[in-house]
Every structure is written in C-alpha cells, then in structure tokens.
Design brief:
Blueprint (H helix, E strand, L loop, with lengths): L1 H15 L10 E4 L11 H13 L2 E4 L4 E5 L2 E4 L3 E3 L28 E2 L5 E2 L2 E5 L5 E2 L12 H19 L20 E6 L2 E6 L2 E4 L1 H13 L4 H17 L15
Parallel strand pairs: 1-2, 6-9
Antiparallel strand pairs: 3-4, 4-5, 7-8, 10-11, 11-12
C-alpha cells in the first residue's frame, strides 16, 4: 500500500495534475514491529525497507499506533498530522464466532483441534479466518488463501472418509492438518517485490516477475491468461496508469 501510494503521488499525479506538486506529498509508514514484513527472511526484510525508502516512503519502525483522530495519528512518542490515513492491520474473525461459546484467540478465531474440528464439537470444523490452527512445532498456520484452501481440502477428505465409515470415528484417530508452505511473496511497487519460496530468496525485478507469473497461472483458461498477459505487458510498456481524485474547490490543491 505504501509503495503504491508513493508511485501514485510521485509519478501519476505529476503527469495528470499540473496544480499538484508531488514534492509536497509525504508518505509515512508506521510499523508496529521492528521491520516491515517481519515474518520474512532478514535479507528480504532489509530489501523491502530499502525499496520503500527509494520510493520516498518514510519508514518509522517500532511505532504502534495509540490513537487516530481526524487528521492526526498518535504513537507513543509522536503525533503525525495527515489528511489521508490508511489502516492495514489484518482481519478479525466473523463476529458469529463469539456466539458459539468456544475458546477464542484475541482476533476472535476459534482455537481448533489439530484436525481443524471445534473442541467439544467433533462434528463441526472451522478453517480460514475463523480458525486458529497450530502447526506441530507450535507455530500458527498463516491466515492466507493458500492455507485456507489446503485446510478446506483436508476437512473435505475427513468428512468424505467418515461418511463412508459405518462405525463412529474418534477425533483422536483423525489425521491432523499439516500446512505445506509453498512460499510467499509481497509486491512493493513497479518492478519491486520480494519472494521466499523454499530455500529461494529473491527480490527486485525477478521477484516481481515471479509474482506476476504465479497470479497469471492462477487464472482459469488459456484465453484469460493470454488476455491478461497482453494487458499487463501493454500497461508496463506504456506506463499510462491514470488516477482521478476529488479536490475541494474551496481549498487550494
């Protein structure tokens, strides 16, 4: 988000709005932790921070937000005035989980058993953003789409197997869910990204192209992939991204 806003203000606004001075734009990224992308490899964390700084983003680490008011963000050590405030802090589970009378974590997710069933209700399963699933070493399965898809396939196999089994199945006999980490990626800006796949650690243009490739093969059908590929190539070559913003006519831009 910070990288996209930096490119928007420094490049797109400069071309599309003659009365907007890109140099007056200030983008501040407050990071609660010591690093952005804190769960990535240290080398990639540093690469991401350097890329943000090259784009003109002011990165302030170890600064959790204490409060937000109109035009103002408060941290433990500073007050930052801002006309546009963007909050990105993960997701909470659906409020329906609070009505079930089961053990929840601080994000409202159900603390499920290793097989993804709800404790005390072996006939009920919870996956995705509604569940906190632990790995065998005590870590958490990440709250990302690939993990949710793997959990869905795991639960479907269990249900299918038990429907075909006449005798009652004990939860202790169920196969636990094992998440297979196939890697992760994060884009920062045009030709800027970081990727961590197995033992491979890449950044910059290579990681950005890899990110595009992964998303491209996720599309259904050869025709869709070709159309999107052509559109992406044309957009990259021409670099004609546009933006439309609302300006208060009673105030100077």
């Amino acid at each position: 988000m910070a990288g996209a806003l930096a490119e928007l203000t420094k490049r797109v606004f400069a071309r599309d709005y003659r009365n907007v001075d890109p140099e007056e734009a200030r983008i501040v990224l407050l990071e609660a932790g010591e690093y952005p992308l804190s769960d990535y490899d240290p080398h990639l964390r540093n690469k991401a921070a350097q890329a943000l700084k090259r784009l003109g983003v002011e990165l302030i680490p170890s600064s959790p937000v204490k409060g937000i008011e109109p035009g103002l963000v408060r941290t433990a050590s500073a007050e930052i005035h801002a006309e546009t405030i963007v909050w990105t802090a993960g997701v909470m589970a659906n409020p329906v989980t609070k009505t079930l009378g089961v053990d929840l974590d601080k994000r409202g997710r159900i603390r499920v058993r290793p097989d993804a069933s709800v404790p005390g209700h072996p006939e009920v399963f919870a996956i995705g953003d509604a569940a906190q699933i632990l790995t065998p070493n005590g870590g958490e399965v990440p709250g990302i789409a690939p993990a949710a898809l793997q959990a869905a396939r795991h639960v479907a196999r269990l249900i299918h197997r038990e429907l075909d089994t006449p005798a009652p199945v004990r939860t202790g006999d169920r196969e636990p869910f094992r998440y297979r980490d196939r890697g992760r990626m994060a884009t920062i800006g045009r030709s800027l990204a970081v990727a961590e796949i197995g033992g491979l650690r890449v950044s910059g243009l290579v990681a950005w192209l890899l990110w595009l490739f992964v998303h491209l093969i996720s599309l259904i059908g050869f025709r869709n992939r070709m159309i999107v590929l052509i559109q992406w190539f044309a957009a990259y070559a021409r670099y004609r991204n546009g933006a439309r913003i609302m300006i208060n006519p009673d105030e100077p831009a």
